[in-house]
Amino acid sequence: MEFRTTSVMSLLLPVFLSVVLMSCVSADNDDHGEVKNEYNELMFNHAIGKSAHFIMFFAPWCGHCKKLAPVWDQLAERFNTDESVPATYAKVDCIKETKVCHENDVKGYPTLKFFNPGKQPAKYTGKRDFENLERFMLEQLDKKKESVPQPPEAKHGLYELTEDNFKGHITEGDHFVEFYAPWCGHCKRLAEPWQQLAEGFSHNEAITIAKIDCTAHRQVCREHNVNNFPTLKYFRDGKEIDTYKGGRDHKSLKEYVTSKMAPPSTEAPPTQDIKKEEKKVEEKKIMDGPAGQTEPRESKVVILTEDSFPEGISKGLTFVKFFAPWCGHCKKLAPTFEDLARKVEDKPGLTAAKVDCTVHKTTCSKHEVKGYPTLMLFKNGNFVEKYSGSRSLDDMYSYMLRKLKESQKEEL
Predict the structure, then answer these.
(1) 214 part of the active site
(2) pLDDT tens for each residue of 319-339
(3) Which of 65, 214, 330, 357 is catalytic?
(4) 364 assigned to active site
(5) Can you tell me the distance from the alpha carbon of 137 to that of 139, in angstroms, rounded to the nearest whole number?
(6) Is 330 a catalytic residue?
(7) Do 18 and 80 contact (CB within 8 A), yes or no?
(8) Which among 149, 152, 210, 305 has most CB atoms closer than 10 A?
């Protein structure tokens, strides 16, 4: 009988431990959204043997622990549900769990240690801020942040920005950005109308609706003086032009964006109206063929993709325009770049090409494209330089001819 009881208990113990642990790791949230993940002795011993854990050993009365607590909760909020980062942030109260803390040589508060199964625990001794704690964790997991910025992807019209791609994303055109924190109640209430706003403007190439998590990308938020959440800012061509203070319902947000995008209402003198009409006519001439031709001219700009890029730049000099369809400056450059392609069409060794960075992201990331449009010159498959001159037809054409002559001299 005793043998049976022992056998049953041995079978039930792992189940009990798993249930207890899962109830802890599921991170009960209090009214303020703080992630608990507080382990007792049983949970701790079971958890660190199963997966990587970053543990804060603390005492409730400790001032430094109280100061670190919000940062630790932000890290837990950010990473404990991220499947790409196999590590859990948790805490152990050394006043309650004296044995655990003694066994792990905790002599002061807070003590931070990283536990990875099969390896010795690593004690953290650096600055106790989000960035440094995150970096330490990634180093322990042998993970590094990608150095090449990835263009943001829109999910139902809403762009999720990061420290790497924020600056490049807002460089051209209009952008309405929400600076938020996942635990923020007001941010959670704004989520639905903000998504509706993004979907409503998803087909408008003149503006993007975006958001950035300030718990994960604190540097950007500091640079833009974000002190509370959510903070909504309007950017144009890389510059912050306004902070939104109105209602956070969909109608108010939509009216605001529409008003910011609208041109000034002042009436222009008749001479200015004539100039505008003349400009439209000139732009139409550029896009249309000879007089009387109604169909657009066939483009002479070579379209490059992820697959065709290496072959496309492999011979001679190739002048490549990296662009995004929604980019205002790209649209302005488009007809001029078409004319450039026609002018070099009969010049052996010269090619004008383009890459859509919203589609072929790997190619643009590989060449560190951080703003649109970006113009680069390649020779026989190799990068030569980034073009930083005027975007007028004459200047770009002269540049290509000059580079062709230099190339020909080198080959003699």
Answers:
(1) no
(2) 999 998 878 788 889 999 999
(3) 330
(4) no
(5) 5
(6) yes
(7) no
(8) 210
